[in-house]
Design brief:
It holds the Pfam family ATP-synt_B. Its main location: membrane. About 90% of the residues lie in helices and about 0% in strands. It is built from five helices and no strands. Helix 1 packs antiparallel against helix 4 (about 60-195) and helix 4 crosses helix 5. The longest helix is centred in the middle third of the chain and has 133 residues, at about 60-195. The chain starts with a helix and ends with a helix.
């Protein structure tokens, strides 16, 4: 496509140069014809013309037209064979460079979009993994808390049962001591006040009956 555009431009420029050359040739012919019409006057005033500008001397017009045509033909050849192809090559290289730059830019854009998509995917995966880790840690903490709470409750219950058992044992021991002391006191009081000799078993049974009555 760039070669076709360059060739079209070269054809247009060659046509423009040819048209310019033809126009100049026609213009030179018109000037020559006009000069030929005024040749007698120019010959009559030869001395005046000889002292004027050389390019306006009708005798030099054919030579001037020859060199003008030769110059334009040479210029047209140089333009069509040397300058214009070089310009077309420069334009073609420039178009190809622009095309390469555009292709490279499009490729870099695609790579950037792919990298951004990969980064977004990685971030999404990292977020999901972090949320899973946080949920797992929270579940482990809750499980540890529940286990610790259950262990504390069991330890407290065991301590409470042990304390109650100790209290009950101490209470029974205290009751037994009170019962023994009360039986001795009852036998002593009965002996001193009533002169009765109460059996230890009877005194202990009486004290036990009173204690059981008080418990109920």
């Amino acid at each position: 496509m760039p070669n076709l555009l360059a060739k079209r431009r070269l054809v247009r420029w060659s046509g423009a140069a040819g048209a310019s050359l033809a126009t100049l040739t026609v213009l030179a012919g018109n000037v020559l014809a006009a000069t030929a019409e005024h040749a007698p006057e120019a010959a009559h005033g030869g001395e005046h013309a000889a002292g004027g500008l050389p390019q306006l001397n009708p005798a030099t017009f054919p030579t001037q037209i020859f060199w003008l045509a030769l110059t334009f033909i040479t210029l047209y050849y140089l333009l069509s064979k040397k300058a214009l192809p070089r310009v077309a090559e420069v334009l073609e290289e420039r178009q190809e460079r622009i095309s390469r730059d555009l292709s490279k830019a499009a490729s870099l854009k695609e790579e950037a979009e792919a990298a951004m998509a990969q980064v977004d995917q990685s971030l999404a995966g990292a977020r999901s993994e972090a949320q899973a880790v946080i949920a797992q840690v929270a579940a482990e903490i809750d499980a540890n808390n529940h286990a610790r709470q259950a262990q504390l409750n069991a330890e407290n219950a065991e301590r409470l049962r042990s304390a109650e058992a100790n209290i009950a044992a101490a209470k029974e021991q205290a009751i037994a001591n009170v019962r023994s002391i009360s039986a001795d006191i009852a036998r002593d009081v009965a002996g001193r006040l009533a002169g009765l000799n109460v059996d230890a078993a009877q005194a202990d049974a009486a004290v036990a009956a009173v204690i059981e009555e008080r418990r109920s």
